[in-house]
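P.,

For your records, the input lines for the assembly:
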Amino acid sequence: KIHQQSLLSFFGTP
Amino acid sequence: MLEARLPQASILKKIVESVKDLVSQANFDCSDSGISFQAMDESNIALSSFLLRADGFDPYRCDRNLSLGIKFASLSKILKCAGNDDVVIIRYMDDADILSLVFESPNNERISEFDIKLLDIDSEYLSIPDQEFECKVKMSSSEFSRICRDLMTIGASVVIDATKEGVKFSATGDDGSGSVLLKQSGSIDNEGRGVVGTSVEMVEPVSLELSLKYLNNFTKAAPLSDSVAINMSNGIPVMFQFDVGDIGYIRYFLAPQIKD
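Structure tokens returned:
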């Protein structure tokens, strides 16, 4: 199954 | 206050068209260096951003940093009232709740003015790490659009493989599979209206699987630029960049898909 990763797991909120 | 005069309305029209389907509303951040924007789609999967540098406007005046909340659907409708060759003047008076857009026809005989209501948007900024990418592909933006459209007929995602040979786009679906290989060409002709070739600058080969639904959204920026830069590293979000002449850019970030 293919899973789309969220950007939140790569880019942090400052 | 803000007063920014953009010599060609078509640039602003194209920018808004290229983000309005991904982001419904966002803050335009204005400072003395220019106008920028950054926002994610509702599902936090794609991030869109753009920058228009102050020197792309003539004149440009911004006395203090401003965050102007814009609803893209409204801005898009208003910009449809501007001719492509009209001059656009973007004007904001301090503490007002509207943004004024003035369109002047090339012969200056028709001047229209529209006010758009501003929104109070509490947006959260993502800090994007400043990173070197393992692979930088530069290719024709219309070719990129065509490949994304063609492969969408096969599957929902595309695998992008970048090697020294070139860049390969592949899709697989229930009814079959398809791929397009663009070989690296000798030189990129970004001058004039020449055909834009493909270049691959790389430290190591990269292979990523990306959602075609999002890529097809990003191709809406193709009218802004002859070429698109696709910056990739294995396992991290890809950055797509369309230059807006020499006055700015529009960028999209999309995380790769992984198999569970």
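Two observations worth noting. The two ends of chain A are 32 Å apart (CA to CA). The interface with chain B takes residues 1-14 of chain A (CB under 8 Å).

Regards
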